[in-house]
Amino acid sequence: MDKIILASKSKVRKEILDKHNIFNQVKPSNVDEDIIKLSLLKERASPEIISKSLAEHKANKVSQNNNGSLVLGADSVIDLEGELISKPKNREEALNILKKLNGKKHYLVSSVCISKNGSMIWNFTDKASLTMKEMTEEELKNYLLKISDEALYAYNVYQIEGEGRNLFLNIEGDEDTIMGLPIKKIKEYLNNYK
């Protein structure tokens, strides 16, 4: 299997590919996610459709300039009772997101797409359910103090593989999906790819 191109700056996604011995080269797509999200929200698209569309846009964009290569695009969104929650742009937004999720169940939707020669050839979307503990504002602020800026802006407001696990009463679903890359399905596809 040749190298796959990862159309993402996400260190966690790269680490997951590396851990599973999937040779990869990083070429971020630099797609304007906000414009795509706004357009899809106006059309009342579901979080699953938004996540899939963003993954596809990223993969297709990088794929157009890398003929013959397989390009992997990925995206994750939080679905709280039908409301789409995006990554925070600052610490105040992060605290507000945690307050919204506080004591509630939400879904983390992760989509992956593989494109070749500018077109999607495979995609998969998975969903995990997470129920956050009821926490005081002080506890939420203390949690945020433990999280570096880089981690906060890269992985939404919680990192399930680190401090973020302590925020939850219940987690149902694939951990790799929660971290942004449902690797089992990607491996299945790549193993069958001719």
Instruction: Please work out how many helical segments DSSP would assign.
Output: 8
Unreliable runs: none
| CATH topology-level fold name | Maf protein
The largest β sheet comes out as:
7 strands, mixed
The CATH architecture name reads: Alpha-Beta Complex
Helix content: 25-40%
- How many domain regions? 1
User: What is the name of the CATH class?
Assistant: Alpha Beta
- What does the average pLDDT come to? 90
SSE run = EHEHHEEHEEHHEHH
Termini separation comes to 9 Å
Principal-axes geometry comes out as globular
β-strand percent reads 25-35%
Q: Can you count the beta strands? A: 7
- What structural class do helix, strand and pairing data support? alpha/beta
